[in-house]
């Protein structure tokens, strides 16, 4: 009973979190957490469910951000429509790139995505007329909710983004309990075996990859309209490394893990400000320590009871 | 959480009681120093911060401002990126409640940070050169460095009059700064009949320039104009230009000459001209006091970017004193606009849009030192 | 067509390619034996450059002895790195090992920022500014040195893997760790020596390539990316693959930078890799199955 109620209680707490403080800066940190959580959840579909490593995910995030910003600023499309378009643009690129790359697995797939991501980054950096180049785009209009008007406060954004996170988290959860979800896991664990069972491995992977890129694109759009400034650095490897850290440190292949990983990443860097110049060293040491001592992610600390509850979490065999 | 807070405040109280000098009852004036502390701009950020710290130490040693309040610098890392700059500015304003902000070392950061601080808090932008920082600024925004347009119109004349190349090729960074430089000098040098042979853009994370320099050398220009903000990229370009066998004149972009660059680039930089607001051989008394203080605390050679940080602290301290407040942006902004300020870089005056008017010196590297050419 | 320019750019490309070869040989060795991409590889490149710098300034020794010292020191560091960061995770999923190496990379970079300072440094080699003119082609002596050292080191590594007892142990471990262990190969020893070799090679690369540009604590992230690309292009685990991959990337980049645009140099390099991988997913010299 408690086990069933817990996710709902957690979701409720998450949804009402900003009411607990008056600090607008803490609200800002919370919005960043949720944006990263959304991104990490989407990358988790590729890393955790498909078992492939993508170094190009930040590029889809950036594509969404640029698509949405450019659409609203140059054509006057309302923001909510632009956000959908952001997901579609990122998903379209995801489809083409996934279609080309997904027959290839392992490190070669990782480098293919790195290559495509890098090309998208370079084009963004040099297509000055459209993207304003390395200076980035400023003064992106805020999200406007029909009937409410433009969102001004970080707290209002939080409610929008947390709704997206909860919806996507639930979708992931439901997916992993469905037939398609079981196909994902079968493909991850043993692709030839999955194929012999009649699962179309390529189509399954492509489905997961496109879904992940669509969500990354929407997250990018939300990011653009929240921070109101974007630069090509969004697509850079620093962001990519941060995302991988969130997913793996939190716990890949779980729903809670990436959200937790994003929280750790955002909050830890804030808290560690107290360390001054040692901040990033302490961060790296904690990161490395957690990987070595908790290799299945922080979520695995709860695993004794989680394992029975969620079929998606299963310890993987060593390679 | 509550217990930790209690413990911390208890310890703080104990410390206060134990310390002999409890005369510090006046709250400090908090100035946010938003500088790049990691990433490619980290060294420039360090120089800038050191300049600010040396000047704050001078002001505090002389009794502080507003009748004995000390200046406290609250430092934030913007990583040289607009996104982080925006977050840092928000934290400074909303969480740490600073009185004033100094930042904007890179144009991209300044352009986005000004939207967060718009009409809310006194913001002094420092080394960024993009015209839009002040052209589309706000009523509390001030910028110290000359815009790249102001620099290039002066430098253009000097290049035509003194260096007199017959032809020139550019190697420039791919951003607004680099693009603007190419546009400006193509016009300005074209006007005095210098033939423009070509331009190569590089990226801000490139480390090797041999291929581009080989290409430029094959165009046979009289001079190569090097536009580099980043010290390590600049030093590499000057050295590799010589290593690629280019024997013509090298011209350094305005505002980017510093002692570290000379140390790293070595003989490749000897005799090279540039433009700067900072002439190390000036006999300004404020500059001498700052240079001495800087030398006492820091290992680095004082650099232009450090003097700009110091100048920011200097004018803010003076303006707050004149306005009689540290946190009323309307009064401080009015004070800043009201008069000409004597600073370590000479006299400075702010235009209505917040742009500073300062002296520009033609400088040259001679015997490994920066000297100003009269 | 300007043949002098073409010749010069080809020469630039071949020499840059040899840099890449030096960097990626160690990376490919580690992959061959451990089946992981070591993201901290670039940091040993950075350490090689910095140790050479400090050996010269603190001990007052010349450039070449300093290079030797730095190579040995970084190689020795490989023992520690394997023991602390890789050996304990040998049974874990590859993503875990990958993240451990990423953490190590961050740790070393930020440690270096604190320890060595943010300021860029110039590694003063006596060969950097001296120009060697062969016909119409201009190269610095340093670049010729890099080329020669790379050829030598690569030949030695290849011979060691091919013809020594250790090389046989290494190849056996690469093909089948359990089987190798059963036949009496000390797996742990093989891992250790592989890391010593890989780190030493990266350190040597840093010490030799360092003087060509400036050195700073984050220079390693550049190196590991190039290494990664070359290793995948050439075929994971293959030393000849690293040679051909490195030279190909160097020449392609030089021609792209010289005739298209420096800004698009990297993107064109990536485009070539994508095409190669789509044609031969295992890379130029990779084997199809393990």
TrEMBL record, chain A:
Record's keyword terms, sorted: Cell membrane, Membrane, Transmembrane, Transmembrane helix
An annotated Gene Ontology molecular function: branched-chain amino acid transmembrane transporter activity
Keyword Cell membrane on entry: yes
Location in the cell: Cell membrane
Pfam family, one: BPD_transp_2
Bilayer topology term: Multi-pass membrane protein
Residue intervals passing through the bilayer: 31-50, 55-73, 79-102, 109-127, 157-176, 206-227, 239-268, 280-302
GO cellular component, one term: plasma membrane
Primary subcellular site in the record, as a coarse category: membrane
Lineage: superkingdom: Bacteria
UniProt name for this protein: ABC transporter permease
Organism: Prosthecodimorpha hirschii
UniProtKB/TrEMBL annotation, chain B:
Residues forming coiled coils: none
InterPro entries assigned: BCAA_transport, Leu-bd, Leu_Ile_Val-bd, Peripla_BP_I
Keyword Iron set for record: no
Top-level taxon in the UniProt lineage: Bacteria
Keywords: Amino-acid transport, Signal, Transport
Keyword Transport: yes
UniProt signal peptide: 1-23
Gene3D superfamilies in UniProt: 3.40.50.2300
SUPFAM superfamilies reported for this sequence: Periplasmic binding protein-like I
Domain called Leucine-binding protein: residue spans: 28-369
GO terms of biological process kind: amino acid transport
Family: Belongs to the leucine-binding protein family.
Name of the protein described by the UniProt record: Leucine-binding protein domain-containing protein
Organism listed in the record: Prosthecodimorpha hirschii
TrEMBL record, chain C:
Keywords of the record: Amino-acid transport, Cell membrane, Membrane, Transmembrane, Transmembrane helix, Transport
A Pfam family per the record: BPD_transp_2
GO cellular component, one term: plasma membrane
GO biological process: amino acid transport
Keyword hit for Transmembrane: yes
Bilayer topology annotation: Multi-pass membrane protein
Key word Transmembrane helix present: yes
InterPro entries the UniProt entry points to: ABC_transp_permease, BCAA_transport_permease
Transmembrane parts of this sequence: 20-37, 44-61, 67-85, 97-116, 144-161, 195-216, 228-252, 259-279
Compartment annotation: Cell membrane
Molecular-function GO term, any one: transmembrane transporter activity
Family: Belongs to the binding-protein-dependent transport system permease family. LivHM subfamily.
UniProt-listed PANTHER family: ABC TRANSPORTER PERMEASE PROTEIN (PTHR11795:SF452), BRANCHED-CHAIN AMINO ACID TRANSPORT SYSTEM PERMEASE PROTEIN LIVH (PTHR11795)
Name of protein: ABC transporter permease
């Amino acid at each position: 009973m408690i086990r069933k109620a817990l996710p709902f209680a957690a979701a409720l707490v998450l949804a009402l979190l900003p009411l607990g403080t008056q600090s607008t800066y803490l609200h800002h940190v919370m919005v960043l957490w949720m944006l990263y959580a959304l991104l990490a959840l989407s990358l988790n579909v590729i890393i955790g469910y498909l078992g492939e490593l993508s170094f190009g995910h930040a590029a889809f995030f950036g594509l969404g951000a640029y698509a949405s910003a450019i659409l609203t600023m140059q054509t006057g499309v309302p923001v909510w429509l632009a956000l959908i378009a952001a997901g579609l643009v990122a998903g379209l690129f995801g489809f083409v790139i996934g279609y080309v790359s997904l027959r290839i697995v392992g490190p070669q797939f990782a480098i293919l995505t790195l290559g495509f991501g890098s090309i998208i980054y370079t084009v963004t950096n040099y297509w000055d007329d459209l993207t304003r180049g390395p200076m980035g785009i400023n003064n992106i209009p805020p999200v406007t909710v029909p009937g409410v008007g433009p969102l001004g406060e970080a707290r209002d954004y939080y409610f929008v983004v947390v709704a997206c996170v909860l919806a996507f988290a639930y979708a992931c959860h439901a997916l992993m309990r469905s037939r398609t979800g079981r196909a994902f896991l079968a493909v991850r664990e043993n692709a030839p075996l999955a194929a012999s069972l009649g699962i179309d491995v390529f189509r399954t992977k492509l489905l997961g990859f496109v879904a992940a890129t669509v969500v990354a694109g929407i997250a990018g759009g939300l990011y653009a309209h929240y921070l109101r400034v974007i630069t090509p650095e969004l697509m850079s490897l620093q962001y990519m490394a941060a995302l991988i850290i969130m997913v793996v440190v939190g716990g890949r292949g779980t729903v809670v893990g990436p959200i937790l990983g994003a929280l750790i990443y955002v909050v830890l860097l804030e808290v560690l400000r107290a360390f001054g110049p040692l901040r990033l060293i302490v961060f790296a040491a904690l990161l490395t320590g957690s990987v070595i001592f908790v290799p299945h992610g922080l979520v695995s600390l709860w695993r004794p009871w989680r394992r029975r509850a969620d079929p998606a979490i299963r310890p993987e065999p060593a390679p | 959480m509550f217990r930790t807070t209690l413990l911390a405040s208890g310890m703080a109280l104990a410390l206060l009681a134990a310390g002999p000098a409890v005369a510090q009852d006046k709250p400090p004036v908090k100035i946010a120093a938003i500088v790049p502390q990691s990433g490619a701009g980290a060294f420039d950020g360090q120089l800038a911060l050191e300049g600010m710290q040396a000047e704050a130490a001078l002001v505090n040693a002389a009794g502080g401002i507003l009748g004995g309040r000390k200046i406290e610098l609250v430092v934030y890392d913007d990583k040289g990126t607009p996104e982080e700059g925006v977050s840092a500015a928000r934290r400074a304003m909303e969480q740490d409640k600073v009185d004033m902000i100094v930042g904007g070392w890179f144009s991209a950061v300044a352009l986005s940070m000004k939207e967060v601080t718009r009409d809310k808090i006194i913001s002094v932008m420092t080394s960024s050169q993009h015209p839009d920082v002040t052209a589309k600024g706000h009523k509390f925004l001030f910028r110290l460095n000359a815009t790249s347009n102001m620099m290039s119109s002066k430098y253009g004349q000097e290049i035509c009059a003194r260096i007199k190349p017959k032809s020139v090729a550019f190697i420039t960074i791919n951003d607004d700064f680099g693009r603007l430089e190419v546009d400006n000098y193509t016009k300005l040098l074209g006007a005095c009949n210098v033939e423009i042979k070509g331009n190569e853009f590089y990226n801000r994370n490139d480390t090797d320039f041999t291929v581009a320099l080989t290409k430029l050398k094959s165009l046979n220009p009289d001079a190569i104009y090097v536009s580099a903000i980043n010290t390590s990229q600049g030093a590499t370009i000057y050295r590799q230009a010589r290593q690629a066998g280019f024997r013509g004149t090298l011209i350094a972009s305005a505002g980017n000459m510093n002692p570290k660059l000379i140390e790293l680039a070595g003989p490749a930089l000897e005799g090279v001209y540039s433009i700067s607001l900072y002439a190390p051989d000036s006999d300004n008394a404020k500059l001498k006091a700052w240079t001495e203080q800087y030398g006492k605390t820091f290992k680095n050679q004082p650099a232009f970017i450090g003097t700009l940080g110091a100048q920011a602290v200097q004018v803010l301290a003076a303006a707050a004193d004149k306005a009689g407040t540290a946190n009323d942006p309307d009064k401080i902004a009015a004070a800043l606009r009201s008069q000409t300020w004597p600073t370590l870089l000479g006299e400075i005056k702010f235009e209505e849009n917040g742009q500073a008017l300062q002296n520009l010196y033609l400088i040259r590297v001679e015997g490994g030192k920066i000297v100003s050419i009269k | 067509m300007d043949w002098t320019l073409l010749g010069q750019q080809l020469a630039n490309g071949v020499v840059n390619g040899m840099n890449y070869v030096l960097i990626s040989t160690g990376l490919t060795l580690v992959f061959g034996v451990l089946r992981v991409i070591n993201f901290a590889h670039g940091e040993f490149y950075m350490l090689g450059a910095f140790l050479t710098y400090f050996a010269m300034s603190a001990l007052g020794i010349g450039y070449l002895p300093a290079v030797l010292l730095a190579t040995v020191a970084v190689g020795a560091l490989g023992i520690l790195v394997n023991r602390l960061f890789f050996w304990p995770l040998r049974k874990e999923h590859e993503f875990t090992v990958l993240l451990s190496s990423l953490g190590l990379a961050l740790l070393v970079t930020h440690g270096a920022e604190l320890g060595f300072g943010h300021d860029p440094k110039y590694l003063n080699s006596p060969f950097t500014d001296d120009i060697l003119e062969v016909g119409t082609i201009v190269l610095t002596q340093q670049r010729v040195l890099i080329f020669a050292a790379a050829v030598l080191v690569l030949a030695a590594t290849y011979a060691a893997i091919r013809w020594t007892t250790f090389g046989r142990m290494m190849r056996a471990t690469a093909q089948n760790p359990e089987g190798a262990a059963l036949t009496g190969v000390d797996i742990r020893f093989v891992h250790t020596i592989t890391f010593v070799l890989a780190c030493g090679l990266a350190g040597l690369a840093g010490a030799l390539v360092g003087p060509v540009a400036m050195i700073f604590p984050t220079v390693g992230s550049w190196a590991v990316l190039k290494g990664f690309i070359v290793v995948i292009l050439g075929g994971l685990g293959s030393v000849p693959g690293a040679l051909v991959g490195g030279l190909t990337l160097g020449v392609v980049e030089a021609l792209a930078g010289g005739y298209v645009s420096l800004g698009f140099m990297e993107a064109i390099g990536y485009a070539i890799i994508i095409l190669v991988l789509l044609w031969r997913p295992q890379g130029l010299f990779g084997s199809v199955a393990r």
